[in-house]
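## retry 2 of 3
previous attempt timed out at serialization; input unchanged, resubmitting
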Amino acid sequence: MTAPGRRSYAVHLSCLLVLVGVMLTGTVLEATVLSEGSIVGTKRRAAALIVGRVLLVAAGAYFLIRRPRVTVVHLGALVPGVLVSGVAGAVLLQVGYRPPPIVSGWKSFAPAAEQNQLGFRGRRIAYAPEDYVIVLLGDSQVEAMALTLDTMPERRLESHLDAPGRTMRVFSLGAGGYGQDQELLALQQYFQTYRADLVVLWQTPGNDIWNNVFKTHMFNRNPKPTFWLDRSGALRGPSESLLQPLADSRVVVASLWKRAFGLPWRDKSWERSLPPPYRPLDHYEGPVQTEWQERWNANLGRMRDENLATEKSHLAVMLAPRSERMQYGLDLTRALTQRIHELVTAHGGRLVILQVDAHHFTSDADQVYVLNKKYYRVSKRQFEANWSDVNRGFDTEIIPVTVEDYRVGPEDGHLNARATDQVMADLAKRLRARIAEKRHASVVPR
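## retry succeeded, writing output
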């Protein structure tokens, strides 16, 4: 029985619960411990946070209206009760629950029957000593999940290169969401067992820069190995190896804590270490394009996942003028490409860079787009200058898409079967001279 006259803290507890419920917004969490985009704009996580905030406010309202007597005795009794419950819960979790593994990076999610020995979608890696071996290195364009195995790029390129008297073998190293960082690690793994006469690095201009800059992917927040440039501009990393386990403590509670807070904070702190991003205009008096806003309103093509505030966006490479963060991303991508080039040449191969021009720009002139009351200048010239700086000095082919209706679907910009065949046919024509040079160089004079 509570001693009479002892002070009640029901109102104080009510105020605390309501304050936490009101202040614990996604914006506040992303500004402190979580990375941008981890809650704001999401569906499940944002909804779960709202439910939790409503429960806190409801509990606060209960204590304020009903005024149950809550004294220091109750609060003191609450502490050991929480500790005992916490220990009991931790023991139960340790005995009966194993968190699913989390690794840094990923490979293909295609069925096992469609994967090669290294875990990427494509035919099994097998060739004869006299075969000419080509590796297609890239991301989702190489993986081509929307296409059948017979129509994916490796098969079509090999078919167009096939000719009497020479045997070509084309293999794939690529998965959706890859930048040159994971591509480099995949190629290192490939060369531990296999050889390549030619490596075709398929760049995706809208993806690769932010894929390389950030420690997580845009859509699923999956962590990945990441490289960085030090103050002298030298390439460092990776932060961990491909498929290295993360947050894998033997203590289940510790592992769950790392997953809930450690990994998001890792992503957040990485973002804070980057140079300043692009700054849009708050006001613009001239004509503006509303396409981005229309796509945002309908979330067409998952437009709401585009984080222009951090440049974790397919659209960032088009923006003018070039920001400090974009300059860093371009320098990083060039350094990674240089490392890939060195790896290929060290193993006796040749590197060719491929870009596909799908005509994303509606005008050669600069245009201003409005999105959520911010104004962004989009420049084809800046886009081309960005990638020219990355690929300067490398053997590069830019192949235009010449077929109409080249996309897989209205919300899927990957090349469909017809466009893939056209691009691979044109690539084959441009590669024949390089292949001939290699074959002639390998002939030993009698």
